[in-house]
Amino acid sequence: MRDIYLPNAETWVLVEGEKPIGFIALIGDEIGGLFLEPSFHGRGFGKALSDHAVALHGPLRVEVFEKNLIGRRFYDRYGFVENGRYVHEDSGEKIIKMVMPAT
Question: Of the candidates 4, 2, 45, 51, which has an alpha carbon nearest to the alpha carbon of residue 27?
Answer without folding.
Answer: 4
